[in-house]
Amino acid sequence: MTKYCLMVVLLVAIAAHPVQALGKKPGVKKPVVTKLLPKPVASVPAIDTTLIAIKRPTIPMGYKSVGKPVGLGKGGQEGRIVIFQNQKGQKWVLKQNATKNGVYGQYMLISEIVGARIAEGAQIPMQKVRPLSATASCAFKTYKAHPATLHTFITGAYKEPNIWQRKGTKGVDRAIVTNMSRDPILTKIAAFDTFIANDDRNNHNLFWTSKGYVGIDTGDAWQGRQPLAEMTLKELPASLKSHKLTTQERAGLIRYATTLKKLVKDFPAPKVCGYIDAAATVLGLSHMNLGGCKLNTFKNFVTSNISASAKLAGYLCRWLGIK
User: Fold this and answer.
1) With left for phi above 0 and alpha for psi between -120 and 50, is residue 253 left, alpha or beta?
2) If the chain, 323 residues long, is cut into consecutive pieces of 10 residues, what is the mean pLDDT of each piece?
């Protein structure tokens, strides 16, 4: 690795965890922090260098906003999205929840960061996300004293089929099995959504790009009232027994089950809860409540859904006759 690459990797580490990267005085043991990002590679991802560049009170040279800020939610009351580009023409998204949206809305940033971290580690096609703390200066922030998330900009078109595991319904039902089986990537995204209990994969959060399907937005991960994996385990078996699967559906369900099984293995509950703690600390939210509940309640829900995901993957593997 060249000296330049080593320097860039060091800058990224310092920006993400300045205390851990620089360490303390000689002889003092450094604190152990769960890594929010995958292990460093020879080439630093563009999103990490961009994160460093925008941490300043003025817009960096060569950067500029693209259009006006976009409001989130009904009437734009939930927050703001700012799209900007660098000197190379690469576009990026800065997302913030409104100050009036309460602590619950701020915790959705944790879901964004941790969900995207899991997808990046598991090589699920999703946009990349990085945290920007409440105290970090950034000219693109709408709410200057609040945290934000930096996202890669996905160029594509909304496209069917529907793989939306909606809140309050049956999780993955027979219709979703049929739809996700049309493309190998869709089965991976569906398994990922089950694993993170994401009930917001509407068609505006699923893009068809030059590289195939890519998902965006995991802000609703683990925000539902019941684990999606548990809902699926309760409802799907009866449907599978009463309706014969086509060859394509069986192949899709096998991909879904094996992907879910690998996610459970590679991202056990303690590891994911470590990501949550790290994200909360970086954002400056670890001292807050989540919609009237403690951060531990949030992590308990995460643990519950991962446990249900393990049971669901086990059931499907046995039913399908695969290991």
Assistant:
1) alpha
2) 41 40 43 58 76 95 92 81 94 88 77 96 95 93 92 90 80 93 97 96 92 94 84 90 93 98 98 94 74 76 96 97 92
What distance in Å separates the CA atoms of residue 89 and residue 195, rounded to the nearest whole number?
Answer: 35
Amino acid present at 232 = T
CA–CA separation, 145 vs 134, rounded Å? 5
pLDDT at 74: 75
Are 159 and 119 in contact, with CB atoms under 8 Å apart? no
Distance CA 147, CA 95 (A): 9
* β-strands 91-97, 79-85 pairing: antiparallel
At how many degrees (to 10) do helices 102-122 and 184-195 cross? 140
- Cα distances (angstroms) measured from residue 64 to each of 39, 96, 130: 31, 18, 19
Q: How far is CA 201 from the centre of its chain?
A: 12
Cα dihedral angle (221, 187, 307, 244), rounded to 10 degrees?
130
Helix 247-266 vs helix 295-320: crossing angle, to nearest 10? 140
CA distances 92 to 57, 156, 295, 318, Å, are 18, 14, 30, 43
Place of tokens 């060249």: 2
With CA atoms as reference, report the closest residue to 190 among 258, 278, 106.
258
The one-letter amino acid at 91: K
In the three-class reduction of DSSP (H, G, I as helix; E, B as strand; rest coil), residue 60 is classed as coil
**Which tokens hold the place of 149?**
């998330």
Residue 133 dihedral angles phi and psi, to the nearest 5°: -70, 165
- Peptide bond preceding 26 in cis form (omega within 30 of 0): no
Q: Which residues of 28-38 are buried (b: 16+ CB within 10 A; e: fewer)?
A: eeeeebebbbe
> What does the angle CA 206 – CA 150 – CA 193 come to, to the nearest 5 degrees?
35
Contact criterion met (CB below 8 Å) for 85 and 91:
yes
Number of H helices, E strands in the chain: 10, 9
